[in-house]
Predict the 3D structure of the following.
Amino acid sequence: MTKLEPQNLPDAAATLAWIATRCDGELERARDLVAGFKAQRPTDSLEALHAWNDIEVALGNAAAAASVYAETNPDGAVRDAADQAMQRIDAFSTDLGLDRDIYEVVTAVDGTGLDPDSSRLLERILRDFHRSGVDRDEQTRERLRDLAQAELLASQEFAKFIREGARSIRVRREDLAGMPDDWMSAHEPDQGGLVTVTTDYPDSIPLMTYCSVASTRRAMTHERLNIAWPQGDEVLQRLLGLRAEHASLLGYDSWADYDAEVKMIGDGGAIAEFIDQISAAAAGSAQRDKAVLVARRRQDVPEATDIDAADLTYYSEVVRKEDYAVDAQLTRTFFAFEKVRQGLLEVTGRLFGLTWRRVDDATLWHGDVTAYDVLQGDERIGRIYLDLHPREGKYKHAAQFVLASGVRGRQLPEGVLVCNFSKGLMEHGEVVTLFHEFGHLIHHVVGGDQQWVRFSGVATEWDFVEAPSQMLEEWAWDADILATFASDADGHTIPPDLVDRMRKADDFGKGFHARTQMFYAALSLGIHRSKPDDLTQAVRETQQKYSVFPYIEDTHFQCAFGHLDGYSSGYYTYMWSLVIAKDMFSAFDHANLFDPEVASRYRDKVLAPGGSDDAADLVADFLGRPYTFDAYAAWLAE
Ligand SMILES: [Zn+2]
């Protein structure tokens, strides 16, 4: 077996040239391979699939590098170059999907006698061609080509406005009452005595949680809900219009139907039913817990009859502290960033039978980034990068990015976690997010031993993709697991009874949280089923119907709702995946989350196959039965 090597990444001075080699070089290779494919017209089925796979590997490599560098590189010129490379890659992919000559070669391939994996690949290739519109008339194909290009430009513009659209407030020190000491010492006032607080997570989330001055929280909420307004609204309108036309040209009722066709859920109508089903199941619990928040707020504001986003996080924290004896300011003393990162690696390594070996000599795009080789036994099976702190111009949320997809005997899977955590003490919620994102990363690496790149790593149905990540969150809530790494500055381990109270406190609000998620899901679905003229009005109406918290006047949440780009009409994915995650988690021994037997079965049956089988079948194989709603419903009712 050949020993595979990870990529060598460029230093700052060489990055622009590297983008040219890695993105445009691989694109050129794909172009040559396509020309060869057309010239040779392979009729042997496996030969044709291998030739096709080569094209997909080259294109995938180019796109992966472009997306990582566009979202993470500290140099704006590199980010722009990466965005532009992505436009060329995307244009080529669109052309490929609409190329009649190559389609003819592929349709002539006789799939009889292929092994199941290869037969699935052939079926997927034909399905992709059909969905890209190759079998339409010349004029339609021409328009589809233009639409794809315009859609990408709009997506990139939307992402860039969010990425570069951080806002801030400037407040007096006394208006920051309640903020933790370490946060205050990291936020010194300027010469005029004012403290600048940005909308970036490490600034704004603690403020929304701890600041006892209502007007400060409201000012920050206003900024947070107006990120990328008004530019984002205009570009979003454009994007929605393009997607609607695209779906309609291909004969679908809406973009949502087009998008859902290749997912577990099937069509837009089924998404709407799912949203209503979850909303109904969560209604009782949502109203009950909201009443607790309003009652508590009334102690401070006697005339209060409701509560909105400016006070929600703060009063949730107050209730957690007063009713559940969980003080997040105390809790966070157990979560120093370095210990958490190390602990995460040890926990997941032990669980999945992997070793993460720090690579000290790798060239990286920023000093905050760390690299690790992933070992299974003695064999290196991948490399991961952790880019976990915020900086200007960097992606603002938390996500796993693919730097290379694994292909058996050919290239190692490489993945990047891009997050925005503070460097000091972490909120427990950040620890949960870290475990979540790491779940994607493990899926990418463990699922990266594939013959066909089409099925590598997280290449499952897109509405299953959040199940492994949401399931791994459970490990960040377990006292025995946390005890292995969560200790304060004096070395005291987090007490199990505190973790128990944290879990109970976290359960508070799960109903209204589910309703908020269904508001997001309904918005993402609704505006992709029929495009409204006024998106802010759509937010207002959808929020009123699904969320139990009211819309705040003069805010435009849609402009920074980045998932409208990546997930388009499919935000329901999170809840759909959560239902499956809860079911998969029921197979583990909750008293011993380190049990290697279940964990390795899960690794081999659910993660390792990547997209080579339907997610529903992988889950059924692991559980020994089809997945159901029961575990989720029981959790919601608890
Ligand atoms: Zn996720």
About this structure: The first strand starts at residue 168 and ends at 172. The pocket of zinc ion is lined by residues 436, 440, 466, 469 (CB under 6 Å).
